[in-house]
Design goal:
Number of strands: 0
Radius of gyration: 16 Å
Distance between the termini: 21 Å
Number of helices: 8
Structural class: mainly alpha
Largest sheet: none
Order of helices and strands: HHHHHHHH
Helix content: 55-70%
Strand content: under 5%
Shape: globular
């Protein structure tokens, strides 16, 4: 871990809350909002989230599964996300979500007209903005936790 955590302190609460309360609490609220207010289907949401986690290398994010009313993706889903280009387990929306996450993280300048034609054929403008904000949240905060070494001790408060 790259940040000294006082003994007895919860690492995430300390770094996100105590060290930078004005920024950290806003970031935490944004991070939680993408889960609380999403309108995206679970599979496309998780395909994008897991692809970002795979790129970031965030240990906690790779292990996390979004739960919607007791429903999660199947155990083999992360492998399908890794193979999003060729897997037969994804419909086009799920495949596009994984592709968008990867390209957003690794080559956002390369999002060309062909991609946007495919994306707008399957997703509404509202869904595209929501997915973009979600991917941005996961990229920023998963990477922050990994870079600071928090991802190996990360447990969401209350979980």
């Amino acid at each position: 871990m790259r940040i000294d955590i006082p003994e007895g302190q919860h690492p995430i609460e300390y770094v996100w809350g105590d060290l930078v309360p004005g920024i950290g609490m806003a970031a935490a609220n944004f991070s939680l909002s993408v889960y609380a207010h999403t309108t995206l289907g679970l599979r496309e949401f998780e395909a994008a989230r897991l692809r970002v986690a795979q790129i970031n290398g965030c240990i906690f994010c790779l292990d996390w599964r979004t739960d919607r009313d007791g429903e999660t993706v199947e155990d083999e889903f992360p492998e399908a996300v890794t193979e999003w280009r060729t897997t037969d387990r994804f419909d086009e929306r799920t495949r596009l979500a994984a592709e968008y996450a990867e390209r957003y993280c690794l080559d956002h300048h390369g999002l060309d007209e062909d991609f946007w034609e495919r994306m707008t054929a399957r997703y509404s403008q509202v869904e595209i903005v929501e997915l973009t904000m979600s991917i941005g949240s996961w990229l920023a905060f998963g990477r922050l936790n990994h870079v600071l070494g928090l991802d190996s001790v990360c447990v969401l408060p209350g979980h």
